[in-house]
Amino acid sequence: MNNTAQQSLLEHYVKKILAAPVYELAVRTPLQPAPALSLTLGNQILLKREDLQPTFSFKIRGAYNKLVNLSEEQKARGVITASAGNHAQGVALAARELGIEATIVMPATTPELKVGGVRSRGAEARLHGESFPFALEQALVLAEQTGKTFVSPFDDPDVIAGQGTVAMEILRQHQGALDAIFVPVGGGGLIAGIAAYVKYLRPEVRIIGVESEHSACLQAALQADTRVALPAVGTFADGVAVAQIGEYGFEVCMFCVDEVLTVSNDELCAAIKDIYDDTRSITEPSGALAVAGIKKYVGKTGVKGRTLVAIDSGANINFDSLRYVAERAMSSAVA
Fold first, then answer.
1. For the chain, what is the mean pLDDT?
2. CATH number, domain with residue 277
């Protein structure tokens, strides 16, 4: 893709982001300083608190933007999707508000908190398979059989545009020096939306993706220069347990993402503690990816005095998982 085509693609997404009516359901979340983490790392760390959305995750943005743009015929037939939990809750809430029947296929390993969140919002939750790829396959089969519209959790321009409103808020909330935005990566919808908006308006700002080392599908795709399917994915960071980066998202990421980092489960547990220490909020493992990535980036590069933003993307974690997180965070601190 030449430069003209790249700019045209970014302009297309920026227009869609600016027009996305996400605030009919989503909220503008704060860009909050993390003073303890900033002091420790020697940089200004800002947290974009997407864990404060109505469904405790940024996913409500893309889900609502997709559903509100469906035709009346599609709305009448209903929707079906696959999700590890956060997109599922976003679709469930958006569908309820818009009067659309929704079926969500979720991995059997999905935390009960997320399954309950879907059902409490009026959607049908079906558990299938050990991880997201199996749930996705089943959802596509059901969509074909029922005639319901399949709503991708990440591989859809309307979903990407909805997620891109996160970047629109960041640039409005912080108009001074901004060096890098660290974005958690699963299927790529969030980072594609953020990267498209930021690189069009503030191309000097670095976009750094952060993946679990057990589901690093964007890093694998960028290294291969094509989308690849991972043979298996780990599910500790269940919100990003995706085997293949989305096609639409990868089209943007190929020329808009400056770097991709991977982090371990122990690094995620330590980052959950860091976020708690600064905000008194508890983040799910995938929600802490960006903070874990910032810590790794600063340790690797030694940068000081920079302004670094982390997307705190979600807080849907089972209560009974907290003991494991606390134990691993303590072990990491001792090590």
1. 95
2. 3.40.50.1100
Query: Model pTM?
Result: 0.95
- 59 catalytic? Reply is yes
- Residue 334 binned pLDDT confidence (cut-offs 50, 70, 90): low
Q: Which of 57, 152, 212, 313 is catalytic?
A: 313
Sheet holding 124-127, edge to edge: 124-127, 102-106, 79-82, 149-150
Instruction: Give the model confidence (pLDDT) of 34-48 as tens digits.
Output: 999 999 999 999 999
Domain that holds residue 125: 59-150
Catalytic residue among 16, 48, 57, 59: 59
What's the total number of domains in the chain? 2
Q: Same structural domain for residues 145 and 161? A: no
For 106-143, b/e burial (b = at least 16 CB within 10 A) is bbebbbebbbebbeebebebbebbebbbbbbebbeebb
Q: 300 catalytic, yes or no?
A: no
Interval 278-315: pLDDT, tens: 999 999 999 999 999 999 999 999 999 999 999 999 99
